[in-house]
Inverse folding.
């Protein structure tokens, strides 16, 4: 009778737990919040972040004067402090770029480039690239909000990507790095879509419904990317988490 009573109690507890899990709010989270949770779940301390905006602006092979006009217009919109504009050109490219501080205080690099195409299959095009880095989590969040308000209206077809990087002491093995990466994604209810790994690196790409935006790869939704590797020079393990992908080499 005691055994039956314990069994019934266990069933009731499991039923209650199932109901609690089912009723957990499926709330949306901000991208930076999700990336912070992923990195910190691995045990890494967040050190820096970077945001990038890329967009194709038109199907023209613009001259340098037109490119500089675009550059200064984008700089004014985003609050980038332009000091000096560098220009270069060749048969297959024309490019202008500048470095400066953004309104959020981040280091920014703005590039506007035009290519002529091949006259047959590849059309001419002009694109812009803005990279803002050396940022704390708070400063990065402010810059993302700024770019969402300005550049996504200026170039609606543009892609905004960003990532956070953290570090911890020690050198885990490949299996442990994979467990950490999976735990990181699970912290925001992310499911692994694809991945790659070797003895020095684990990279997983996933999807979470807690983020409203996503891109597709082979017909599958993705909006998270985590990479874990050991850096021999720093003698630390590096953890990066990006939305929807980590846009810099790792």
């Amino acid at each position: 009778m005691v055994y039956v009573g314990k069994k019934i109690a266990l069933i009731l507890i499991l039923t209650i737990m199932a109901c609690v899990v089912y009723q957990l709010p499926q709330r949306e989270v901000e991208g930076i919040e999700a990336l912070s949770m992923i990195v910190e779940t691995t045990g890494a301390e967040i050190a820096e972040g970077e945001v990038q905006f890329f967009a194709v602006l038109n199907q023209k092979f613009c001259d340098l004067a037109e490119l500089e006009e675009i550059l200064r217009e984008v700089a004014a919109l985003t609050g980038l402090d332009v000091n000096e504009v560098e220009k270069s050109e060749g048969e297959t490219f024309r490019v202008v770029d500048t470095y400066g501080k953004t309104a959020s205080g981040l280091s920014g690099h703005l590039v506007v480039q035009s290519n002529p195409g091949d006259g047959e299959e590849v059309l001419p095009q002009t694109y812009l690239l803005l990279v803002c880095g050396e940022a704390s989590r708070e400063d990065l969040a402010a810059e993302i909000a700024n770019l969402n308000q300005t550049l996504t209206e200026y170039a609606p077809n543009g892609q905004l990507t960003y990532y956070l990087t953290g570090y911890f002491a020690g050198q885990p093995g490949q299996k442990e790095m994979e467990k950490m990466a999976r735990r990181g994604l699970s912290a925001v209810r992310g499911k692994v879509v694809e991945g790659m790994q070797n003895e020095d690196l684990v990279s997983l790409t996933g999807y979470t419904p807690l983020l409203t935006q996503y891109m597709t790869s082979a017909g599958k939704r993705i909006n998270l990317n985590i990479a874990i590797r050991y850096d021999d020079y720093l003698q630390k393990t590096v953890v990066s988490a990006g939305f929807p992908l980590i846009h810099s080499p790792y």
